[in-house]
């Protein structure tokens, strides 16, 4: 059994207080930034990554030297462990999505429920192994509303939910906000107080495991081909699976079905995440060692058009995304 050290809530709350103080003393250089500040706290040491919502920003979290938010190396975390990205809530406000990259170590909030993929409105504080990380909303468009993901979009449902609101005297009281419906396949939405605000966390489908992928194509699938100088392999993926996220790389938890035979050691163990957000499909480089390129330029995030695209992984492997009809 994997050792999952229990960090007490008081320690996590101190980490949040430290991160809030650092944000006050070191605000984002761009005063107009709207999004999230991701942070890692180790003792009194705080590192952070500012992630705007109005661009292609996302963060890879792990122990690899190229990760955006780095853990100290150890057997309690993976080299590329989590991906965080901003998402837009129904009313136009900003939330945070956190996804485990099919590691053997889930993350936890202020309870003992293992999490693999969540959407949060408001501040976030989680523990991963012996590490504490979190996110602080930045800007006026951040929200305390609970959300669900459906095709990576959000939908509302009638009904009240109490959230914290300040009175004229500065005291926190409860007020009513709308509840967001949950898909049957999701866990319940829960409320958590990490600091002065109440956050709502919704569990959603985790990054797809290789065994979840359908063996044959039909309507609603996309086709990709991996091609090296002497080998190639093709696979078809359900668009619904892409909403959860699909990993490409040499690790056992990545998509295989013949693709791994094409991969060389120039490809990172978890190299690329394919993710659908609404009607868009993205390829996210997971801070790979040898990079991902399009048109000869190194890129982090590629929006794959309906007419298809060619992307280079490492120095020589081409991923051909066939046109969608």
CATH architecture of the largest domain: Sandwich
Fraction of residues in β-strands: 35-45%
Estimate percent helicity.
Answer: under 10%
The SSE order reads: HEEEEEEEEEEEEEEEHEEEEEEEE
The description of the largest β-sheet is: 7 strands, mixed
Task: State the CATH topology of the largest domain.
Answer: Tumour Suppressor Smad4
- What structural class do the secondary elements suggest? mainly beta
Rg over CA atoms: 20 Å
What's the quaternary structure here? single chain
Distance between the termini: 46 Å
Outline type = globular
Number of structurally distinct domains: 2
Regions with little confidence, pLDDT below 50 for 5+ residues: 144-186, 210-217
Rounded average pLDDT: 76
Organism: Chondromyces crocatus
InterPro entries: FHA_dom, SMAD_FHA_dom_sf
Pfam family, one: FHA
Protein name: FHA domain-containing protein
Lay out the secondary structure:
Layout: H1 9-25, E1 35-42, E2 45-52, E3 59-62, E4 69-70, E5 82-88, E6 94-100, E7 117-121, E8 124-128, E9 131-138, E10 157-166, E11 172-179, E12 189-193, E13 198-203, E14 221-227, E15 232-238, H2 239-244, E16 246-248, E17 272-277, E18 280-285, E19 292-294, E20 297-299, E21 301-304, E22 309-313, E23 317-321
Parallel strand pairs: 3-4
Antiparallel strand pairs: 1-2, 1-9, 3-5, 5-6, 6-7, 7-13, 8-9, 10-11, 12-13, 14-15, 14-23, 16-17, 17-18, 18-21, 19-20, 19-22, 22-23
Pfam families: FHA (PF00498)
Protein name: FHA domain-containing protein
Domain FHA: 246-299
């Amino acid at each position: 059994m994997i050792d999952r050290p229990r960090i007490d809530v008081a320690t996590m709350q101190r980490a949040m207080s430290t991160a809030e103080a650092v944000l006050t003393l070191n605000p984002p250089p761009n005063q107009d930034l709207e999004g999230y500040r991701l942070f890692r706290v180790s003792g009194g040491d705080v590192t952070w990554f500012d992630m705007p919502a109005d661009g292609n920003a996302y963060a890879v979290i792990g122990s690899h030297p190229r990760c955006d938010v780095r853990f100290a190396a150890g057997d309690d975390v993976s080299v590329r462990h989590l991906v965080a990205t901003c998402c837009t809530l129904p009313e136009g406000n900003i939330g945070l999505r956190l996804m485990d990259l099919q590691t053997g170590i889930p993350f936890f909030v202020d309870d003992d429920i293992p999490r693999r993929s969540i959407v949060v409105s408001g501040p976030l504080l989680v523990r991963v192994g012996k590490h504490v990380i979190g996110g602080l909303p930045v800007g006026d468009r951040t929200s305390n509303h609970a959300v669900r993901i459906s095709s990576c979009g959000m939908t509302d449902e009638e009904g009240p939910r109490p959230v914290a609101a300040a009175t004229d005297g500065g005291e926190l009281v409860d007020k009513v906000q709308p509840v967001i419906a949950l898909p049957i396949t999701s866990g319940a939405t829960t409320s958590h107080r990490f600091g002065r605000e109440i956050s709502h966390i919704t569990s959603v489908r985790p990054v797809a495991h290789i065994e979840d992928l359908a063996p044959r194509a039909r309507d609603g699938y996309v086709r990709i081909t991996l091609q090296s100088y002497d080998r190639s392999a093709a696979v078809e993926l359900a668009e619904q699976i892409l909403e959860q996220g699909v990993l490409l790389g040499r690790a056992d938890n990545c998509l295989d079905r013949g693709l791994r035979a094409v991969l060389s050691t120039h490809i990172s163990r978890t190299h690329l995440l394919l993710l659908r957000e609404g009607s868009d499909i993205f390829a996210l480089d997971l801070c790979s060692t040898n990079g991902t390129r399009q048109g000869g330029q190194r890129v982090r995030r590629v929006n794959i058009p309906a007419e298809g695209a060619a992307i280079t992984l490492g120095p020589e492997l081409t991923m051909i995304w066939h046109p969608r009809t």
